[in-house]
């Protein structure tokens, strides 16, 4: 689906559940995604990542052909658009991702990944804006998103449940370049 150098992003398949179980039972990964109090077994992975069609495009991330993470993107529905203030915007997507192999953290792959997905969404889906809502304490994610062209729009107090409490998040947005929306 998406290729950028050594990075490949393809549709998630049922055989990929084994990777998700591994990553989402690793406390290092859970500290950032889902929470260490929510380790995933096969059943929870099936429920969370392989539901009936809900409009999300779920993907496996490969680096030099090795599975290293997960990404998803989706058009925001009307309640999400209203919550985030995008009622007038036509094509707004949300996205989430994580690198599940800690050996690949802090190497620039996250920035490459987010940039590749943004390029795909802009060119293939004609997306005008992409919204993400990382937890406010996750400095590494915030830096990555800012490098990719996201900007902080507003703080979302007590927005997401993580490890036993509601956490503040940032609404961040990427807007397609005006000169590219005309082609």
TrEMBL record:
Keywords: Antibiotic resistance. The keyword RNA-binding does not apply. This is GNAT family N-acetyltransferase. Residues 7-177 form the N-acetyltransferase domain. CDD domains: NAT_SF. The keyword Ribonucleoprotein does not apply. Gene3D superfamilies: 3.40.630.30.
